[in-house]
Amino acid sequence: MTVLPPELLLLIFDNVSVRTLASLSLCSHQIRILVFPLLYRHVVFKTNKELSQFSSRVISEANGGTLIDELRVADHVHDLEFEGGRAVVAYDADKLELLASELQHMKALRGLTWSARLPKNPTIFSAVQRTCKGIQNISLHIWGYFDCHDGERA
Q1: Buried (b) or exposed (e) across 118-152, using 16+ Cβ within 10 A?
Q2: What is d(CA 72, CA 40) in angstroms, rounded to the nearest whole number?
Q3: What is the C-alpha separation between 44 and 70, in angstroms, rounded?
Q4: pTM of the predicted structure, to 2 decimals
Q5: Sign of the C-alpha dihedral, residues 28, 31, 36, 39?
Q6: To 5 degrees, how large is the angle CA 55–CA 109–CA 114?
Q7: SS (H, E, C) the chain
Q8: Displacement of CA 9 from its chain's centroid (Å)
Q9: Could you tell me whether strands 79-83 and 137-140 are parallel, antiparallel, or unpaired per DSSP bridges?
């Protein structure tokens, strides 16, 4: 069997779906290390449960809860997206606060997109901007009291 160099494998892996990357990460330890950063480049939350699980993992890793440094999620996230729309009444304020406090560990974070109801503590966005030195974009699409699309109360 011919072994491809990691650089070529990364070029290939960069063009496959997240589902395929997840499957590939189970093949071997070496492949997992290669695809891990690609798996966590863009993280989307659609529920409080997903936010809670992600926050717990980032906090655990910040406290030494990972066996291999290359596999720390916080080191590879480029974009965080909160996609609640009308489906999620509001993201858990405590989990958001916890995640915001850990964002300083996300050295690769460049963007945050918020497509949900306004959080109970909207100052969290300025906290993100202060703590994340590399952040370049914070995009807000707020579902509020009035839905600007149809003019009716949400």
Answers
A1: ebeeeebbebbeebbeebeeeeeeebeeeeeeeee
A2: 10
A3: 21
A4: 0.74
A5: negative
A6: 70
A7: CCCCCHHHHHHHHCCCCHHHHHHHCCCCHHHHHHHHHHHCCEEEECCHHHHHHHHHHHHHHHCCCCCCHHHCHHHCCCEEEEECCCCCCCCCHHHHHHHHHHHHHCCCCCEEEEECECCCCCCHHHHHHHHCCCCCEEEECCECCECCCCCCEC
A8: 24
A9: unpaired
Q: How far apart are CA 36 and CA 114, in angstroms?
A: 24
The token pair at 61 is 């890793």
Q: What is the mean pLDDT of the chain?
A: 78
Chain segment 3-36, per-residue pLDDT in tens: 888 889 899 999 999 899 999 989 988 888 899 9
Q: Looking up tokens 């959080």, which residue turns up?
A: 119
Of all residues in the chain, what percent carry a pLDDT higher than 90?
A: 14
Question: 112 pLDDT exceeds 80?
Answer: yes
